[in-house]
Amino acid sequence: MWSSKLGFILAASGSAVGLGNIWGFPTQVASHGGAAFLLVYLVCVVVVGFPAMIAEITIGRRTNRNPVGAFKALSDNQFKYSLIGILGVICASMILAFYTVVAGWTVSYVFAELFHFLGLAHWEHYVANTQHGFINALFSIIFMGATVLIIVGGVTDGIERATKFMMPLLFMILLGLIGYVLFQPSAGIGLKKYLIPDFSKINVSLIFSAMGQAFFSLSLGVGGMITYGSYLSKNENIPEATAYVVLINTLIAFLAGLLILPAMYIAQAQGVTIFGPNGQLLERISLIFKVLPQLFHQLGGVTGFILGIVFFFLLSIAALTSTISLLEVPVSYAIDEHHLPRKKAAILVGMGILVISLIISFDISLIGLFVKIFNNIGLPLGGFLICMFLGYYWKTKNAITEMEAGYPGIRQSVFSKVWPFFIKVITPLAILYNLLNALGFISYLKNIFT
Ligand code: TRP
After folding, report:
1. Is pLDDT larger for residue 391 or for residue 308?
2. Is the dihedral of CA 138, 144, 145, 150 positive or negative?
3. Would you say the CB of residue 383 lies under 6 angstroms from ligand 1?
4. 15 lines ligand 1 (CB under 6 A)
5. Is 217 a pocket residue for ligand 1 (Cβ < 6 Å)?
6. Could you point out which of 59, 206, 257, 434 has its C-alpha 20 to 30 Å from the C-alpha of 112?
7. What is the rounded average pLDDT for all residues in the chain?
């Protein structure tokens, strides 16, 4: 169990804050029309993410189980409901497979910055190459190894302690870099793009990506928050704790955009090619790995060196607290449902997923495919089923009773009137729209009626 409310909030934020915030979010903003994306993203966080996270955490705390066991426990062992958990276990594993490769880059760039400072240009270019299969594989192995080690060692102490000082440090370094960036010429173009919405940019594909991003960034849809909720003590206030997690996660993503959007234009002014002839982003997957080193090198000297190293190091830690939560989903399943000892489960599952990471290492275009299947379809599908299960099978009144333990006045609150309506109607409908869209139904219908 988490040692305190703060412990839970930090651990859950540690899961949420990761590559999704600093690598995914700014890239999505840049490729989907700037501020318009930010705006729709915020709506998705409030309408879909916040209610769905409360649902997952409440299911976890009620059952004290891994995602598969949780649905079994709430449905008298009915196999069809445990499928929701199984879907989550599969999606978490597949997301972890590509996440590990990108997380490996954050470590390799710590070395790249070091080599740059030492003037070892050859080594720098060797390590800072996101296309290099062998380098990708090497750093994926290192990253998966670290993740497995922490999971084996029992997580609560490790995750809690690490996030307690890493998160504030990451926050401060982001602020510092933003301060620097905003005073650079050509930062203004990026800032305008990021903050002044062009509503004509809002279309189906933007809404679709914004909701996917909200799910991914908040670690929803695979039962990750069910697992973390299962370690939460009964006297904590779930809606309040969730609100903190959502706020922290949104703030970090917002700050990452405030850093990277301007930095893109600064890097471009320095001769780094970022946009193609039609203004489209050239390399989405490796965008921040092109833009940020440029910034650190422009800063130069010891300051640039220290900021570069510390930034990529913190990003590695942020990614690590996320890979831990991803691996914990299949591992807790293997421990509870297949009675493996923790150590064996972590090593076996970790190695299995690493095999897929190694394949991706040698062809990083696979990342796009994985994102399409597991992030864009798997997560919303999982989130939809979780909402439907809670709303129509387990029933929101039972969830409210579970929350009452740490929130005595809940029955008189506005929350207890609004949240059930969201979980039963608004949130699943919003997700359903997205899912139908992902499967091509919306354009199919459009063709029929026009
Ligand atoms: N939220 C993390 C990020 O933004 C990634 C992550 C961790 C995740 N656990 C998850 C995504 C569970 C989906 C499901 O980087």
Report:
1. 391
2. positive
3. no
4. yes
5. yes
6. 257
7. 91
Q: For residue 401, what are the CA distances in angstroms to 192, 376, 395, 412?
A: 46, 33, 10, 13
User: What average pLDDT does the segment 88-97 reach?
Assistant: 98
How far apart are alpha carbons 314 and 17 in whole angstroms? 11
Q: For ligand 1, atom 6, which residue shows the shortest CA distance?
A: 219
Question: What values do phi and psi take at 129, rounded to 5?
Answer: -130, 105
Indicate if ligand 1 lies below 6 Å from the C-beta of 224.
Answer: yes
Longest dimension (CA), the chain: 66
Q: How far is CA 104 from CA 141, 170, 368, in A?
A: 8, 18, 17
What CA–CA distance (Å, rounded) separates 128 from 61? 43
Measured in whole angstroms, the distance separating CA 303 from the mean position of its chain's CA atoms is 29
Residue 281: what are its φ and ψ, rounded to 5°? Answer: -65, 135
This prediction's pTM:
0.93
Residue 100 Cβ contacting ligand 1 at under 6 Å: no
pLDDT of 157 > 80? The answer is no
- HSE of 18, CA atoms in CB hemisphere, 13 A: 29
219 C-beta closer than 6 A to ligand 1: yes
Is it the case that residue 164 has pLDDT exceeding 90? no
Residues 6+ apart with CB under 8 A from 161: none
Encoding tokens for residue 359? Answer: 């394949």
Euclidean distance between CA atoms 251 and 245, whole angstroms = 10
The separation between CA 236 and the C-alpha centre of its own chain, rounded to angstroms, equals: 24
Residue nearest to atom 8 of ligand 1 (CA): 219
Closest CA to 143 of 363, 367, 373, 315: 315
What does the pLDDT look like over 11-58, one tens digit per residue? 899 899 999 999 999 999 998 989 999 999 999 999 999 999 999 999
Site to probe by mutation for ligand 1, drawn from 254, 326, 333 as the one with most ligand atoms within 8 Å of Cβ, is 326
Burial of 446 (0-12, 13-18, 19+ CB in 10 A): exposed
Report the nearest-CA residue for atom 7 of ligand 1: 322
Calpha distance 81→323 (Å, rounded): 26
- Angstrom CA distances, 102 to 137, 317, 373, stand at 11, 13, 17
Q: Quote the CA–CA distance of 264 and 37 in Å, as a whole number.
A: 17
Q: What pairs with residue 128 in β-bridges?
A: none
